[in-house]
Amino acid sequence: MDSIVVTGGAELHGDIPIAGAKNACLTLMPATLLTEEPLTLMNAPRLSDIKTMSLLLQSLGSEVQMLQDGKVIAMSSLGPINTTAEYDIVRKMRASNLVLGPLLAREHQAVVSLPGGCAIGARPMDIHITALEAMGAEIELKDGYLHAKAPGGLKGARVPLRFASVGATENTLMAATLAKGTTVIENAAREPEIVDLAECLTKMGAHIDGAGTDTITIEGVDRLGGATHRVVTDRIELGTYMLAPAICGGEVTCLGGTIDLVGAFAEKLDEAGFSIEENARGLTVARKNGRIRAVDVTTEPYPGFPTDLQAQMMALMCTAEGVSHLEETIFENRFMHAPELMRMGADIEVQGGTATVTGVEQLKGAPVMATDLRASVSLILAGLAAEGETRVNRVYHLDRGYEHVEEKLSAIGAQIERVPGV
Ligand code: EPZ
User: Fold this and answer.
1) What is the CA(166)–ligand 1 centre distance, in A?
2) What angle, 0 to 180 degrees and rounded to 10, lies between the N-to-C axes of helices 192-203 and 166-176?
3) Annotation says 118 is catalytic
4) pTM of the entire predicted model
5) N or C, where is the chain less crowded by C-beta within 10 Å?
């Protein structure tokens, strides 16, 4: 397994290109199952999760071509379609469950393995199941697989979600495009990735209103056509790299970034003492004079502070002046980066869903272990600011969500290299 070695202390100056959004691409790709015509995605990120999704879709009978070094994904699902998503692929990536809605919509049946828990939580699928059952699906759990069928096809329905689940909103939205009648999703997730999916489905001929609000109305149609769609910019990669100059000084422009993608997060950076300027090239971030100020953060569904930026914000707060409280309300176990940061000298106390961080002058480099995607990048950020060398092990977590992280950071002055595993 590869490691990444960071030697801290360098200020960062220059431009970082921000890729297309992993979490948009992972829901756009299964949309190919909704049509027999070609669906092409531009600005796709080059990530291992994307490769996993393409393997899953190929196992279902879709044709998936990665062109232009993976930035373009050309798909077509002429059929016949295999309606079983096997455990050995689904267990690698929870987002595999996003084939459930499209398979039910197109084939009126699906057998999808439950993804199983992951490092950050149990991640059940009850909200997905309740939503699709409201549309007439019959779903039962057998041998770790969801066996779903909708004889005669799905029917439009009122679908109140008990929690604004991103994945459940996406599965329901895709299923509803081919259902008979009107579907209204209430308490829908409002993330930019949902808006991006709705825009792509609309290009394919779907009738959707309200994406980006908590109520989405979909008029089902008989069939969808193909489309070419540009994947929206990755707001989590954007937020992550905005923190790089924040944590170790300097001035960096995140190319293609826009403030509307990172609203609540940018407000917290401003409160902590950073200047963020939106310009024609993207978002330019620099540390104002003086030390970082401690701020309190509570993660919430969009447009609140994103849970996917909580670990990275914690890395910043480790050397802030004062005490910050980070409350994680979305996942039940998303503080695994805390003990690793403590190995670097951070002063963190975790009580249930809240981590209290007392800022220290300086972190010290140390060998640390990546445990999940966002925790691993928070350790890289901490290493950029730490004195000495930090070796982050198990960086396969990192490669799931960040393309060429060592290239992007070394291009702006970071001392960082990938060490191939033995
Ligand atoms: C998406 O996961 C993202 N993944 C996650 O990003 C992100 O953290 C999450 O949304 C929240 O924003 C993708 O888009 C591929 P949820 P998803 O359904 O859809 C519970 C990353 O780092 N829940 O909104 O799985 C669930 O357990 C990843 O890129 C149920 O209880 O998130 C969690 O506690 C990590 N029952 C909460 O809701 C359900 O049926 C939020 O889950 C579904 C979810």
Assistant:
1) 6
2) 10
3) yes
4) 0.97
5) C
